[in-house]
Predict the structure.
Amino acid sequence: MIWVYDGGRYIQFAFYMKNHIRELSTFRYYEKVGDSYQKLERMPGEGTGDRLSLDGKKPDYEEVKGKEAKLENKS
């Protein structure tokens, strides 16, 4: 799963675990700095309660299993 926020400034993602349809890996977060992305440290692995409040925002883009997903109604 991939979520893109703030026009591409932040990316959050997790992978589906092999042989598990619904179990996700630890979430990772990246911030665009110049022309590249840097991993954000000290972010929660479960995908909620992050210090940037991304879990409360509607992403600009969402992808599930390699396909663009219909965006959920987030605030």
